[in-house]
């Protein structure tokens, strides 16, 4: 019975959210699942909020590229990354820590998927927890 009530409330919440403007939809994020919704080709892309958890152990001196377009929130290891090439603004070459801390960039899934661990909260905790 309780389960049904919960499901009903969730449906209600979803229908409420659907009626609101898209701006309100992203005020609260669950954080655990961020992949999956990116497939839709939305007209206006919103950059993610600055990363809060990161660790640059071993990659402090890695140089990356960032597109200075305000809708971009990623950095690239490859200067010929297709995502970077499609940049409509200027781009800069800078160190990875600076790209993350000063510009709030995340790793590009196309050319820098191997750097995702930099933002892995669990990895950071493991690093400092003991
Ligand atoms: Zn890239």
Features:
130 residues; alpha+beta; four-stranded mixed sheet; 5 helices; 12% strand; binds zinc ion
Characterize the structure shown:
The structure is a single chain. This protein is α+β, with helices and mostly antiparallel strands and 130 residues long. The protein has a domain at 53-130. It has helices at 2-19, 22-25, 82-85, 96-101, 121-129, and strands at residues 63-67, 74-76, 91-95, 106-107. The model is unreliable at 24-40 (pLDDT under 50).
Tell me the layout of helices and strands.
Layout: H1 2-19, H2 22-25, E1 63-67, E2 74-76, H3 82-85, E3 91-95, H4 96-101, E4 106-107, H5 121-129
The protein binds zinc ion.
Residues 76, 81, 83-84, 108, 110-112 line the site of zinc ion (ZN).
Brief write-up:
This protein has 130 residues and is of the alpha+beta class.
Number of helices: 5
**In percent, how much strand structure appears in the residues?**
5-15%
- SSE pattern: HHEEHEHEH
Q: What's the total number of strands?
A: 4
Distance between the termini: 44 Å
Mean pLDDT: 78
Enumerate the distinct ligands.
zinc ion
Keywords: Signal
Biased composition (Low complexity): 25-40
Signal peptide: 1-25
Region (Disordered): 25-54
